[in-house]
Structure formats: structure tokens, C-alpha cells
Amino acid sequence: MRDFVIMRPDLEQTLSFRVLGPFEVLAGETPLRMPPSKKTRALLAYLALSERPQRRERLCEMLWELPDDPKGALRWSLSKIRRILEAGGRDCLAADRVTVAIVRGCIAVDWVELREATATLDSLPTERLEALAARLRGPFLEDLALPRCPEFEAWRMAEAAQAEATASNLLRLLVERTRDEPARALRHAAQLRAYDPDDEGVEALIAELRHAAPRHAPRPEPESAPAPAAEPAPAATRPTAEAGA
How many helices (H) and strands (E) does the chain have? Predict the structure, then answer.
């Protein structure tokens, strides 16, 4: 398991939250060590995607049952979450006796970035679309299923459905944008298959692109004929002494 990264408080940075796939948090390019408690990780993800402060009472009801001392469990989880957020060099957890929130400017969330780009996908340059597609690592919070927490699970599944539809639209657009470069389009089509595994049209598209890719591959430059070897210079002849000299 990766260790915590201890950051200097004077070096503030935005923490990157990756929820499109297995949940992880990065400080710069370095993944932070996540709490072993699945519910603590779920709470962190939920707060990261909440647009407003959440009441402590509701968080307790969502993640903990009464016999588990929900208030104590919430306090313990928040202490672990605060330690993770401190890796950004500042206090990013806003908590009082009633509500809890993560300060918006402290984090960047891949799903939020993709969701905000949805309205303008058609107008974005292809390179920007490919940068967004590179963030797609799998289903939304795929490692945080909590079937015994129905309210959290309902939220997770709703977000997952929206994220899957958005990812599919993005990848289909990329395939159309890059059809003239079959090898490039094939990468996006293969990624699309993970989101639409039962779509026969996607399988046909992949087969078509695989067939076209070799024909569009750049041809190697013809080898130039070797330069003719230089003829050796004639050996110098020593002048012969004239007879009787």
C-alpha cells in the first residue's frame, strides 16, 4: 500500500480525486494512502462530489446503522479524511457541530470536469476530448459498492449511470472525429466497448477499423542504394634515376 505523502504547509496544491474507476486521491502525481475503511472512503468520495455542506445526521443515517455508534464512526472517519486533505498543504475540511463539507477550491474531481464539459463536447478540439477520455479508468467508484447502505448505493448507481452515458457519448464522438486515422480511432472504439459491451455495432466498428488500420499505416521509406565505393587512388610511382646520372 502506498504511504502518505507529507507535504510542506507552505506548498499548497490542489488534490486530484479520481472517481471514474477505482477511487484514489493524488497529490501532484503521487497517489495518497487511502483509509482501509470502505465507509470512510465512501464518505470522502461523497463529500468531494457534494455541492453543498452535508448535515452530520444525514451522513450517519446514510452510512452507519444505529448499533454501530454512527456519531462516533463519523467523527473517526472525518479524522482520517482530514489527514488525507492536509496533503494539499491547507485545511480543506469545513466541519462544525451540524454540517461537514470539503472546500471547493482544494480539490479537482475527474467526473466533475467531464460533466461540466458535456454541454460543449461538440465544440471542443479533438486533443481536449482525448485528454478527457484518458481519465476514464472504469465505472464510477467501482470499488465502493455498499449494498448494506441503500441510500449511498442508490446515489452511487445513479452517478454511475450518468457517468457511463457521458463516457459513451465522448468516445463515440472521438471515433467519428478520428475515422480518417483508423489506428487512432481503434483505441477509442476499444475503450467504448468497455462501456457498451453488448452493442453489436461497436463490435462491427472495431472489426472495420482493425481491417483499415494496416492499410493506413505509414509506409517505410525505401532504402536508398548504397553509395558506390570510391576507387582507390593510383599508387605514386617513384621516378627512376636516369642512366649514367
Answer: 8, 7
Please check the confidence at residue 54 and state whether its pLDDT lies above 90. Answer: yes
Q: What does 218-240 look like in DSSP terms, one character per residue?
A: PPPPPPPPPPPPPPPPPPPPPPP
Whole-number Å distance between alpha carbons of 106 and 110: 14
- 223 CB contacts (<8 Å, ≥6 apart)? none
CA dihedral 133, 47, 102, 24 (to 10 degrees): -50
The grid coordinates of residue 222 equal 525505401
Take residue 108 and report the three cell numbers written for it.
Answer: 479537482
Other CB atoms within a 10 A radius of the CB of residue 155 amount to: 18
Cα–Cα dist 103/85, whole Å: 10
Query: What integer pLDDT is reported at residue 240 of this predicted model?
Result: 47
The amino acid occupying position 207 is A
What letters, b where the CB count within 10 A reaches 16 and e where it falls short, cover 162-173? ebbebbbebbbb
pLDDT tens-digit series, residues 92-148: 999 999 999 999 889 999 999 999 999 899 999 999 999 999 999 999 999 999 999
Q: Does residue 169 surpass a pLDDT of 90?
A: yes
- Other Cβ atoms less than 10 A from the Cβ of 24: the count is 16
